[in-house]
């Protein structure tokens, strides 16, 4: 399993999905084909399976070697892929995103399938409603997998508590995100808080904590993994913000600039605005006021916003923060006695998830780097 974690999780996930789709078709053939099979296809075809790999290598780093532990880790990893499907499908509806992974988003695909059934507005509303139900179904399947996973009583309690907290954190973070869009929130502290809740916790920290729980790890190892995960998870989200602004659609699978058009209160945007206002840069302030949060912003206006991100130093600031966070996260791993080879795999995975090269310098910084005094002051 160590040699191909992703392939092994895919196999477990595939078996789970086959059974769920069969049950859905037995409930109702149309529902099974239209919705359940589409959820299964979306889940099978997506992502790098980083979350399930974090579960696995955390288990191994904490000395988990028993077959029941391995089986549980693979199932929990599969459940995380399902909850990721829920998050992405719902996120695309809320952002009105047209593409995901280089193809039409699920709500767009569903609307197109029934485009001839009524006027365009009705088909669009149907697509959104169907996508919400698809995300709900993925979440229900994920919960079923966790509930049906055999674990010792104490381990099961730890896993259920972590799983419950993670689901609530995801919803809280997503709410802060959309609430920040409608209120044009500008606070740097708020941007970091939303990023932590929406993505950092469920993308890295909670998967690591789940792996540690499955291995029945002690407080020191669990604390080290969670602290590392908090730092690297935030770096992961900050990298995602940069990719949304500056990434190539051929690599990301979706057009760049979605966060700009939706007015998403990212840390990148908050730094740029704070810097522009503090320096009295009227051009930069006017560009952000004129284009940020406008769904119909032109490509030229998006380019101007990107220019502001660069000119104010916001892009470089975020890059530097990512590097510092990853460095601190890696140092946290050194504070506990963990299995060396599994720890090395975690280090590689953490750098990869954050887009930080192996040769990056490991600067020593306090954990308060998550919100520095400079950041807090600039946001006031």
Describe the overall structure.
By secondary structure, the chain is mainly alpha-helical. The chain has 17 helices and 2 strands. A two-stranded antiparallel ribbon has the order 1-2. The longest helix has 31 residues, at 153-183. It is flat, with a radius of gyration of 21 Å. It starts with a helix and ends with a helix.
Q: Give me the count of strands.
A: 2
Strand order of the largest sheet: 1-2
Helix content: over 70%
Largest sheet: 2 strands, antiparallel
Report the sheet-strand fraction.
under 5%
The number of helices is 17
User: What is the radius of gyration?
Assistant: 21 Å
**Main structural class:** mainly alpha
Protein topology:
Blueprint: H1 5-27, H2 29-44, H3 50-61, H4 67-95, E1 99-100, E2 103-104, H5 106-113, H6 120-147, H7 153-183, H8 188-214, H9 219-246, H10 249-252, H11 258-262, H12 267-279, H13 282-291, H14 299-311, H15 314-333, H16 340-354, H17 373-378
Antiparallel strand pairs: 1-2
Helix pairs in contact: 1-2, 1-4, 2-6, 3-4, 3-8, 3-16, 4-6, 4-8, 5-6, 7-8, 8-9, 8-12, 9-15, 9-16, 12-13, 12-15, 13-14, 15-16
């Amino acid at each position: 399993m160590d040699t191909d974690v992703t392939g092994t999780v895919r196999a477990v996930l595939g078996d789970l999905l086959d059974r769920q789709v069969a049950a859905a078709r037995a409930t109702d053939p149309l529902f099974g084909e239209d919705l359940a099979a589409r959820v299964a296809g979306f889940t099978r075809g997506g992502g790098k399976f980083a979350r399930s790999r974090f579960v696995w290598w955390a288990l191994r780093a904490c000395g988990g070697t028993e077959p029941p532990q391995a089986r549980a880790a693979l199932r929990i990893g599969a459940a995380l892929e399902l909850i990721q499907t829920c998050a992405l499908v719902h996120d695309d509806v809320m952002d009105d995103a047209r593409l995901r992974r280089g193809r039409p988003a699920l709500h767009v695909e569903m609307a197109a399938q029934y485009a001839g059934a009524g006027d365009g507005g009705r088909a669009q509303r149907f697509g959104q409603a169907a996508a919400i139900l698809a995300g709900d179904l993925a979440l229900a399947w994920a919960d079923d997998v966790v509930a049906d996973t055999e674990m010792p009583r104490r381990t099961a309690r730890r896993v259920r508590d972590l799983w419950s907290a993670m689901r609530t954190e995801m919803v809280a973070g997503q709410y802060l995100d959309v609430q920040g869009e409608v209120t044009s929130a500008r606070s740097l502290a708020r941007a970091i808080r939303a990023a932590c809740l929406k993505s950092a916790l469920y993308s890295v920290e909670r998967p690591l904590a789940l792996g540690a729980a499955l291995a029945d790890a002690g407080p020191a190892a669990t604390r080290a993994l969670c602290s590392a995960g908090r730092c690297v998870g935030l770096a992961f989200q900050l990298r995602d913000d940069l990719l949304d602004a500056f990434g190539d659609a051929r690599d990301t699978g979706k057009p760049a600039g979605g966060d700009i058009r939706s007015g998403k209160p990212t840390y990148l945007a908050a730094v740029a605005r704070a810097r522009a206002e503090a320096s009295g840069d009227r051009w930069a302030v006017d560009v952000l006021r004129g284009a940020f949060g406008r769904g119909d912003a032109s490509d030229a206006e998006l380019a101007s916003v990107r220019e502001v991100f660069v000119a104010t130093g916001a892009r470089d600031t975020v890059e530097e923060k990512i590097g510092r966070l990853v460095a601190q996260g890696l140092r946290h791993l050194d504070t506990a006695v963990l299995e060396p080879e599994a720890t090395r795999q975690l280090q590689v995975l953490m750098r990869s998830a954050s887009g930080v090269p192996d040769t990056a310098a490991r600067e020593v910084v306090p954990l308060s780097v998550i919100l520095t005094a400079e950041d807090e002051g600039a946001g006031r």
